[in-house]
Amino acid sequence: MLDDGSLLVIDYKTGGTDLRPRSAAPSPGDCSRSTLKGLVRSFQLPLYLRCATERWPAAEARAALYSIRDCELAEYPRRKDGDSGHAHMAACISALGTLCDEITDPAVPFEADDDDPRRCARCEFRNMCR
d(Cα 54, Cα 59) in Å, to the nearest integer? Predict the structure, then answer.
């Protein structure tokens, strides 16, 4: 909790803050994996923020990524004047539900995402994709 009674959830990153989601939230009609990868990038901070707001519902909650390398604090989601970010967060959580439904649907075949070979090289499950 901050001095003003609000809550700031910080996700510390050893790299930059380039994992901050785009300002546009995914639309309910397009929650494809490629769209989510481009817009949301990571569900980690939206989940942290959701857990915090459920735990402390009376507190005004905000979230940010903090780059340890750059000493940069990047607010999440990027907010425009008068925008609380709640609609963006709701869209991210809804998209996560859609993604979980797809993952657990036996009719949807597994497809490896090999867009970033560096990420694949570090993945402990890389042998399953071959």
Answer: 10
Which of these, 100, 72, 91, lies nearest to 23 by C-alpha position? 91
Give the relative orientation of helices 86-103 and 44-55 as an angle to the nearest 10 degrees: 120
Residue 81 has pLDDT above 50, yes or no: no
The model's pTM: 0.70
Q: Is the pLDDT of residue 74 over 90?
A: no
CB distance 23 to 79 below 8 Å: no
Handedness of CA 61, 62, 65, 68 (dihedral sign): negative
Distance CA 92, CA 97 (A): 9
DSSP annotation of 128 reads G
Would you say residue 99 has pLDDT above 70?
yes
